[in-house]
Amino acid sequence: MEALIVSYGETSSDSDSESPLPPPPASTSSEVFCPLPPPPLSLLNPANSIGALDYFDGGQSSRLRTFPHVEGNYALHVYIPVSIPSAPKKELALFLKKVARVVPGLYAVDVDVPLDALCKDDDKLEQVALERELHISLGRTVPIRLHQIDTVVTMLRQKLQLQRRYWIDFSKWEIFVNDDCTRTFLSMEVVAAGLVEIRKQIQAVNEVYKLHNLPEFYKDPRPHISLAWASGDISNTLKNAIQEERRLSVGGSIQKCFFSCKFNGIVCKIGNKTYKICKFSDK
Homologous superfamily of 71-280 in CATH? Predict the structure, then answer.
């Protein structure tokens, strides 16, 4: 199951000592206190803000580490970046909205904002849940040591150096649960165009992982992007909600492509650094 990226960064809590400030001058009886006017509303809620959701703290995160943090380890994740085109966003947002009404406790992936809060504003739902860069994982997220970074990146580039652009179709809603059943994901699976090419790329990543004694990907990989998550294993509840929505929708029994995008490269993220892995042979 898909494991999510963990970035290891160091923060410093040291602060410079400060000398005490001089006491303020004593006020005189002739001074008149004039309060400042309130700030303009545009500053309180700027154009690129999502309002009160900017300060939401759900207390949970979809970026779970599936392995204990060890000093000197860095999280490795190899993936295909995916951006959803503008045209299908409204239809996808409507679907998420309908599912969120019947399945409580869903969060937008990565940003961890509850969907039921986003559903109050269609524009915010599209902005937060669908306008971010998503990803198709080509390998498990695993810890590696500092001395392994150069060889991992070099071998990935050797295996995946030249790639041709191809179309990827996302044509099926699917539910995935991580290995320890602590997270359930609402995802869109690749079952047609792009599946053969992605599986070949997964195999190449597996070969690099194997040479570094890292766990390989699933034997029967099912490439997908995830849009929402929930705590625990609620796969049956989500599947029932999707099936009901298909039944109610016009032509729900006919599988269609929800959107397509062109393969645009492979990224390897290690800790806080990202590496571009492949070049294109058809430019």
Answer: Cyclic phosphodiesterase (3.90.1140.10)
End-to-end CA distance of the chain: 34
pLDDT mean across residues, the chain: 79
8-state DSSP, 19: P
* pLDDT tens-digit readout, 172-186: 999 999 988 999 999
Taking residues 10-27, report their average pLDDT.
41
In this prediction, residue 181 carries a pLDDT of: 92
- Name the one residue in this structure whose structure tokens are 């006020």: 27
> Alpha-carbon distance 157 to 160, whole Å?
5
Question: What H or E segment, with its residue span, contains residue 46?
Answer: none
pTM exceeding 0.70: yes
Q: What is the pLDDT of residue 274?
A: 95
Beta strands in the chain (DSSP E): 73-82, 107-108, 134-137, 142-145, 162-163, 167-170, 172-177, 183-189, 224-231, 259-262, 267-270, 273-276, 279-280
b/e code 209-245 from CB counts within 10 Å (16+ = b) = beeeebebbeeebbbbbbbbbbeebbbebbeebbeeb
Please give the backbone phi and psi of residue 202, each rounded to the nearest 5 degrees, phi first: -60, -40
Q: Could you give the CA distance from residue 260 to residue 264 in angstroms, rounded to a whole number?
A: 12
Interval 244-277: pLDDT, tens: 887 777 555 445 779 999 999 999 999 999 999 9
| DSSP-assigned states of every residue in 233-262 | --HHHHHHHHHHHHHHSTTTTS----EEEE
